[in-house]
Amino acid sequence: LPGTVPEEPRCTVERADASLTYSLFLQRFAFSRPVILGGVTDNSAFRALCTREKLLAAFGPFPVRLSTANTYSYRKVDVPFQEYVEHLLKPQDPARLGSDTLYFFGDNNFTEWGPLFQHYVPPPFRIPGTSPAYSFGIAGSGSGVPFHWHGPGFSEVIFGRKRWFLYPPDKTPHFHPNETTLAWLQHTYPTLPPAQRPLECTLRPGEVSPGPAGTPGFPARAMGPHWCLLQVLYFPDRWWHATLNLDTSVFISTFLG
């Protein structure tokens, strides 16, 4: 499956660079539409701690809570992090329902994972009256969460690629809550006329210079120290969104509530 799920033909989410001021963010995006922010933070130190080797060494025996990959994420299962990485972190089975698929996103124990999160540099913008909360996850290629909505937030990919599909609050997408995003992309998406298609983008880490024996994705080693063009997606309150990991991916969201 890796490499077989394509990126969108053209990213249709607006982009802004580090010159975007906080006042313009509030005026143009905070309450109205998503945006991809480029170059607003440097998370090279955090990324270096998120390799497979480093995470297994730091958190291997700790339990993590897995959620079903359906709209409402009803079922929760606790397993040791090492068991998840070594035995459950696999590409999505296209025939498997989201309600029968478990993966690790959110429900983090902040006492155990706090030392890692201390190294994360969140996006600089906030919505007045909200406080940030982190949601960290690792998932296999082809996995994802089908359409759902909640409060505003930011999402960043540390390793891998994550494809996003977004609709405004007044445009409910056609989907089955127990169907995976992969199944929706294969069966429903091709039938949508252009006017009914979502905003789309593929989120990836910032560009890095090649390091010794470094490989992208969820590698054994981090790549070199140079870091630029970081991409962070902002999604406003109540926007419908679905996600699809195009590779084995490490990611973190900052929810504003």
Structure description:
Helix content is 17%, strand content 27%. By secondary structure, it is of the alpha+beta class. The chain has one domain: Cupin (Jelly Rolls, Sandwich). It has a 9-stranded mixed sheet with strand order 1-2-12-7-14-6-5-3-4, covered by helices on one side. A 3-stranded antiparallel sheet has the order 9-8-13, with no helix packed on it. Strands 10-11 form a two-stranded antiparallel ribbon. The termini are far apart.
Low-pLDDT runs of 5+ residues are 208-228
How many DSSP helices? 6
Relative helix content: 10-25%
What name goes with the CATH superfamily? Cupin
Number of strands: 14
H and E string: EHEHHEEHEHEEEHEEEEEE
CATH secondary-structure class? Mainly Beta
Q: Which whole number gives the mean pLDDT?
A: 88
The CATH architecture: Sandwich
What composes the largest sheet? 9 strands, mixed
Number of separate structural domains:
1
Spatial order of the strands forming the largest sheet? 1-2-12-7-14-6-5-3-4
Q: What does the radius of gyration come to?
A: 17 Å
Structural class: alpha+beta
CATH topology (fold) name: Jelly Rolls
N- to C-terminal separation? 36 Å
Shape: globular
How much beta, percentage-wise? 25-35%
